[in-house]
């Protein structure tokens, strides 16, 4: 797992997803795929971390970017999750 960087001037984007318990692992696998294969190709991407909720219905993920502009630009260039989801 990566360490959250607080000393740098990075932008941190946090998502919390709520899913049915039977879909929690599938979402984690999708987010790991995106963090490993898709997001590193985006300019300004630094890292991502994914956390499983103990109750079985939530997944938190945060990713860090060099700037707000890099984060904003990534949304226009990143394949939608629907395409990535087809791998699972």
Explain this structure to me?
The protein is of the alpha+beta class. It has three helices and three strands; from the N terminus they run βαββαα. The protein has helices at 24-38, 68-77, 81-85; strands at 11-18, 45-52, 58-65. It has a three-stranded antiparallel sheet. A hairpin with a 5-residue loop joins strand 2 (45-52) and strand 3. The longest helix has 15 residues, at 24-38. It is globular, with a radius of gyration of 13 Å. It starts with 10 loop residues before the first strand and ends with a helix. The model is unreliable at 82-88 (pLDDT under 50).
Blueprint (SSEs and pairs):
Layout: E1 11-18, H1 24-38, E2 45-52, E3 58-65, H2 68-77, H3 81-85
Q: Write down how many β-strands occur, each being a DSSP E stretch of 2 or more residues.
A: 3
Mind describing the biggest β-sheet?
3 strands, antiparallel
Strand order of the largest sheet: 1-3-2
Number of helical elements: 3
What general form does the structure show?
Answer: globular
Beginning-to-end CA distance, first to last residue: 22 Å
Question: How would you spell out the order of helices and strands?
Answer: EHEEHH
User: How large a portion of the residues is in β-strands, by DSSP E?
Assistant: 25-35%
What Rg, in angstroms, do the CA atoms define? 13 Å
Helix content: 25-40%
> Low-confidence runs (pLDDT<50, min 5 residues)?
82-88
Name the average pLDDT.
85
Structural class: alpha+beta
